[in-house]
Specification:
65% helix; ABC transporter transmembrane region fold; alpha/beta; Rossmann fold; 6-stranded mixed beta sheet; 21 helices; binds adenosine-5'-diphosphate; binds magnesium ion; 2 domains; 4-stranded antiparallel beta sheet
C-alpha cells in the first residue's frame, strides 16, 4: 500500500467537519475488503501466480503417476524411470511454488494487520471522553487483538484458500472428466457431505475458540485488577473473595479451553474418515471399471491423486465460509473505532507561532452526559499575569482547565488565545503554547528522570537528564529523590505506586515547568503537600510564572493571594471575581474560606508550640 494516500486520506478526514449523526463518515476513514484487496494487490497477484504454478504442478503429478504405472504395467522400465524422475522434479518445484504462494499471501494478511493496528492506535489517540465512556478498555483491547487476528485470518488464510479452491477445481476436474465422467461423478458425490460436515464443525469451533479467548481475557483482566488494587485488597481483607473470583475465572478458562480441545480433537478424525470413504468409493467403483477394461490401473491411481487435490480445498471451503463471516464482523467492529468521531477535532485554520499568552474566556458553558458543568463563565487573563481559580470540590475547576487546553471539546467562540478562537488553532500549536499539569498525575512505569523529561524529544540524553534534575530541584523534589535507592534512575512502579501523592504531584509539576509553555495551567498542585513544602513550591511557581501566563487552581487561599487576580467558581459559575484584597473585604465564599484557613493555621501553630 502507498503510505502517501493513507496520510492524505487522514488529513482530509481531520479537516472535514464531522458528518451529521447517523450518516456514515467518509469511507476512507474505515477499511473495507475492497480497500484491503486494492492496497495489497501486488502481494495477491504475486502470491496468486505462485499458487497457480503450485496447483498446476500438483495436478501434473497424478498424470505422471498414471504414465509411470502404465509404463510399469507395460514393462517399459526406461519410460517409467523417466516419468518418475519428472514426477520428482514436479513435486519439488510445486513445493517451492507452494511455499512462495503462502509467504506472499500470508504476508499480505500480516501487512493488513500491521496497518490496521497502527490506524487503530492513531484513532484511539484522538478519540475523546464520549468514545471511552461507551467503550471499555477491555472492549478496545479485544478489538485490537481478537478482531485483528480474525481479519488477518480472513485476508491471509481465507483469501489463499478461496483462490486455491478455484484453481484446484479448474486444474483437476476437467482432467478427471476427460478420463471418465462416470468415475468423476462417483468421486465428487460425497463432496456436499464434506462441506456440510466442516460447516457443522466450523461454527461451534469458532464460538468455542472465541469463548476460550474471552475466558483468558477475563482471567487476565481480573488478575490485573486485583494486582493493581493490592493495597485495597489487603486493607479490607478481600483476599478470600478475590481468590474466589479469580478461581471462578480460572475454571471458566479451563472449561472453555477443554471444550475447544474436545471439538478440535474430533474434527480431524471425522474429516479424515470421510475423505477416506470418498477414496474407497473411487477404488471400488474404479476397480470394477479396471476389471471391465474401461480404464487402466494408471488411470485409477491418477484419479485418486486428482481427487485428493480437490478434496482438501473443498473441506477447507466449509471452514472458509465461517472465516469470511467472522472476518467481516470483526472488520466492522474495528471500523466502529476507526470511524468514531473525535470530540476535539483539529480543524486548523489559524496557525500561530509563539503565543503572547493572553487568555479570554467568554460565556463558556459546558455539559457532559446531560449535566451542565459550567455556565456562562467569563473572565480574562492578560498575557504574563496570573489568575487563581478557587472553589469547592466539584465546582468545575478541573473541567474548566481541560476546556482551556482543549483536552475536552471546547465550544466555539468561547475561549480565545491572543484573540484567536482556540477551536481554530492547530492542536499541535495550541499544545505547545498551553500546558496543563493535571490534578491526578499519571506516571509511567519507568524511572523518575524519564517521567519528568518524557515530553522532551530525547529523554535519555545527558542534556535532558540535567534539565529534569533542575526541574525536580525547582519543585522541591530533588532531596526526596536522592534518598531513593537509585536516585533519578529509580523505577517508580506501575503508575508510580512507589511515590507518595505529593511526590507524584510534584513530578507532574516539574513536567509542566520543563515544557515551558506560554500559558501554564496548574490544577491544584498543592493538594497533597505539607505547609512548608507548599510555600517552597509556591516560590517555584512564582519563578516559573515570570514571562508567562499562569492559571492556578487551588483551594489554598495562601496560594491564591499570590496571584494578580482571583475568580471563585461555584457549581460551574463564576460567583466572585477580583483581587485577593478586594475579595477579602466581601462576605462571599472567598472571605469565608480565608477565615476558615486562618483559624486552621492558628490551631496548627498552637499545637506545634505545645508539643
Ligand atoms: N468525565 C466526566 N463526566 C461526567 N461528569 C464529570 C466528568 N468529569 C467531571 N465531572 C463532573 O463535573 C463536576 C466538576 O468536576 P471537576 O471539574 O473535577 O471539579 P473540581 O472543581 O473539583 O476540579 C463534578 O460534579 C464532576 O462530577
Ligand atoms: Mg479538580
Amino acid at each position: 500500500m502507498t503510505v502517501d494516500t493513507q496520510d492524505l486520506s487522514r488529513a482530509n478526514d481531520t479537516r472535514s467537519p464531522p458528518p451529521p449523526p447517523g450518516v456514515e463518515s467518509s469511507a476512507d476513514s474505515g477499511w473495507t475488503l475492497g480497500r484491503i484487496a486494492q492496497a495489497n494487490r501486488k502481494s495477491f497477484v504475486i502470491g496468486g501466480v505462485f499458487l497457480v504454478a503450485s496447483t498446476g504442478l500438483a495436478a501434473l503429478i497424478p498424470q505422471l503417476l498414471r504414465g509411470t504405472t502404465n509404463a510399469i504395467v507395460a514393462a517399459d522400465g526406461a519410460r517409467g524411470m523417466r516419468l518418475s524422475l519428472l514426477m520428482i522434479v514436479a513435486a519439488v518445484l510445486g513445493a517451492i511454488a507452494r511455499i512462495f504462494s503462502r509467504i506472499w499471501i500470508f504476508n499480505a494478511g500480516r501487512d493488513v494487520e500491521y496497518d490496521l493496528r497502527a490506524d487503530l492506535l492513531k484513532r484511539l489517540h484522538i478519540l475523546g471522553p464520549s468514545f471511552f465512556a461507551r467503550t471499555s478498555a477491555g472492549e478496545v483491547m479485544s478489538r485490537a487483538t481478537n478482531d485483528l487476528a480474525q481479519v488477518r485470518l480472513l485476508v491471509g488464510f481465507g483469501a489463499l484458500n478461496i483462490v486455491n479452491a478455484v484453481i484446484a477445481y479448474a486444474a483437476n476436474i476437467p482432467v478427471m472428466l476427460a478420463r471418465s465422467p462416470k468415475l468423476t461423478l462417483a468421486a465428487l458425490a460425497p463432496f456436499p457431505v464434506f462441506i456440510f460436515l466442516t460447516r457443522m464443525f466450523a461454527k461451534p469451533l469458532f464460538a468455542r475458540s472465541r469463548e476460550a479467548q474471552e475466558a483468558i481475557g477475563g482471567l487476565s483482566e481480573r488478575a490485573q485488577q486485583t494486582l493493581s488494587a493490592m493495597r485495597v485488597v489487603r486493607a479490607y481483607r478481600l483476599e478470600d473473595p478475590e481468590a474466589a473470583a479469580f478461581k471462578k475465572r480460572s475454571d471458566d478458562s479451563l472449561s472453555a479451553n477443554l471444550a475447544l480441545a474436545r471439538l478440535r480433537g474430533s474434527l480431524w478424525p471425522i474429516l479424515g474418515t470421510s475423505a477416506a470413504i470418498a477414496s474407497l468409493i473411487v477404488l471400488w467403483f474404479g476397480g470394477m471399471m479396471v476389471a471391465r477394461g474401461e480404464v487402466t490401473v494408471g488411470d485409477l491411481l491418477a484419479f485418486q491423486g486428482h481427487l485428493a487435490l480437490v478434496a482438501w480445498p473443498t473441506i477447507a471451503l466449509g471452514y472458509i465460509v465461517t472465516i469470511l463471516a467472522r472476518g467481516r464482523a470483526s472488520l466492522n467492529r474495528i471500523n466502529e473505532i476507526l470511524r468514531a468521531e473525535p470530540d476535539v477535532v483539529d480543524q486548523a485554520s489559524a496557525s500561530m507561532g509563539e503565543a503572547r499568552g493572553g487568555l479570554r474566556v467568554e460565556k463558556l458553558g459546558f455539559s457532559l452526559g446531560g449535566r451542565e458543568l459550567l455556565r456562562d463563565v467569563t473572565f480574562s487573563v492578560p498575557a504574563g499575569s496570573s489568575l487563581a481559580i478557587v472553589g469547592r470540590t466539584g465546582a468545575g475547576k478541573s473541567v474548566l482547565l481541560h476546556l482551556l487546553a482543549r483536552l475536552l471539546p471546547t465550544p466555539e467562540s468561547s475561549v480565545f488565545l491572543d484573540g484567536a478562537d482556540v477551536t481554530k488553532i492547530e492542536l499541535a500549536t495550541l499544545r505547545r503554547n498551553v500546558c496543563l499539569a493535571q490534578q491526578e498525575a499519571f506516571l509511567f512505569s519507568t524511572t523518575v528522570a524519564r517521567n519528568i523529561a518524557f515530553a522532551m524529544g530525547e529523554p535519555d540524553e545527558q542534556k535532558s537528564i540535567a534539565r529534569a534534575t533542575e526541574a525536580a530541584t525547582e519543585v522541591q523534589l530533588a532531596d526526596e529523590i536522592a534518598t531513593m535507592p537509585d536516585g533519578f534512575d529509580t523505577v517508580v512502579g506501575e503508575r508510580g505506586v512507589q511515590l507518595s501523592g505529593g511526590q507524584k504531584q510534584r513530578v507532574s509539576l516539574a513536567r509542566a515547568l520543563l515544557a515551558a509553555p506560554k500559558v501554564l495551567l496548574l490544577d491544584d498542585p498543592l493538594s497533597a503537600v505539607d505547609a512548608r513544602t507548599e510555600s517552597l513550591i509556591l516560590d517555584a511557581i512564582d519563578r516559573a510564572a515570570a514571562g508567562r501566563t499562569l492559571l492556578l487552581v487551588t483551594h489554598r487561599i495562601a496560594a491564591a493571594s499570590r496571584c494578580d487576580h482571583v475568580i471563585v467558581l461555584d457549581e460551574g459559575r463564576v460567583v466572585e471575581s477580583g483581587t485577593h484584597e478586594t475579595l477579602l473585604k466581601g462576605t462571599g465564599l472567598y472571605a469565608r474560606l480565608y477565615e476558615k484557613q486562618r483559624i486552621e493555621a492558628e490551631l496548627e501553630a498552637m499545637e506545634a508550640s505545645q508539643s
